[in-house]
């Protein structure tokens, strides 16, 4: 399916699972690198520059990368995409009616990472600030992190209440506003969210084999030293994209050589 941006000639940079980054040459990667839900264009990539506000698609790309390369297959961790969180939070009526459109068996996940945005309830992609909430099933708790003085606290609380029925819990959940290192400008909320996702994911994975002994209120505490700097996050994502792009080029080259060889063999028969 083409988007308006594709029709206008944006370049394909990379095709990675549920995310496409456009540049001049497309390529066929192995099955493990193919899927399409959303598109990253050059304007999206520009949000990685210092001082720029990270948009939805870059956060989705990072989540996709973690799912495919970092999280063990037997770990039941869910990364809800920003658009899905918006739908759950603001759709009218009973949230259970949305189940067919949501990831199956949400009640079975050990942890759910939930990006929060202060956007207009009636307009997607309209917010100005990101925060992050992590649901931990073992303690029925939503840990809420905000790098701008709990700017999105009410949005986080609303999202947690809307998500609760989908989790089919037998006991009430806790919403825990967690102390969070604060950003020093108005543009680093998105990269801070990525840093927090990385750290809390690491903490949860590290504790998987000793669940009965884990004090989640301790391991989910976040301090400044635990977070990557905004520059580190931006550089890491840029580097990630370049490495995947190189894999794409290598795959393209191999596919092209294979195709040429096959064609030549056919002509010689």
From TrEMBL:
Top-rank taxon: Eukaryota
GO molecular function terms listed in the Swiss-Prot or TrEMBL record: cysteine-type peptidase activity; deNEDDylase activity
Pfam families: Peptidase_C48 (PF02902)
SUPFAM superfamilies reported for this sequence: Cysteine proteinases
Keyword Protease carried by entry: yes
Regions annotated as coiled coil: none
Listed InterPro entries: Nep1/2-like, Papain-like_cys_pep_sf, Peptidase_C48_C
Annotated region (Disordered), positions in chain: 249-269
PANTHER family xref list: SENTRIN-SPECIFIC PROTEASE 8
Family, as annotated: Belongs to the peptidase C48 family.
Name of this chain's protein: Sentrin-specific protease 8-like isoform 2
Species, as recorded: Mucor ambiguus
């Amino acid at each position: 399916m083409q988007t308006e941006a594709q029709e206008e000639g944006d370049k394909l940079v990379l095709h990675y699972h549920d995310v496409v980054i456009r540049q001049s040459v497309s390529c066929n990667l192995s099955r493990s690198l193919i899927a399409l839900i959303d598109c990253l264009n050059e304007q999206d990539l520009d949000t990685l520059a210092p001082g720029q506000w990270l948009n939805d698609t870059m956060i989705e790309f990072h989540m996709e990368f973690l799912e495919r390369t970092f999280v063990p297959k037997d770990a039941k961790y869910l990364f809800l995409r920003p658009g899905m969180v918006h739908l759950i939070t603001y759709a009218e009526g009973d949230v259970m009616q949305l189940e067919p459109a949501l990831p199956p068996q949400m009640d079975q996940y050990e942890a759910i990472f939930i990006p929060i945005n202060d956007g207009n309830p009636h307009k997607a992609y309209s917010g100005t600030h990101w925060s992050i909430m992590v649901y931990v099933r073992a303690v029925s708790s939503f840990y809420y992190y905000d790098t701008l003085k709990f700017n999105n606290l009410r949005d986080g609380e609303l999202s947690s209440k809307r998500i609760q029925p989908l989790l089919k819990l037998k006991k009430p959940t806790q919403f825990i506003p967690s102390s969070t290192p604060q950003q020093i400008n108005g543009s680093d909320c998105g990269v801070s969210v990525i840093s927090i996702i990385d750290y809390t994911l690491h903490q949860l994975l590290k504790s998987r084999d000793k669940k009965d002994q884990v004090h989640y209120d301790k391991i989910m505490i976040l301090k400044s030293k635990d977070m990557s700097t905004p520059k580190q996050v931006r550089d890491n994502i840029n580097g990630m994209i370049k490495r995947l792009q190189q894999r794409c080029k290598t795959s393209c080259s191999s596919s092209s050589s294979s195709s040429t060889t096959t064609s030549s063999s056919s002509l010689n028969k």
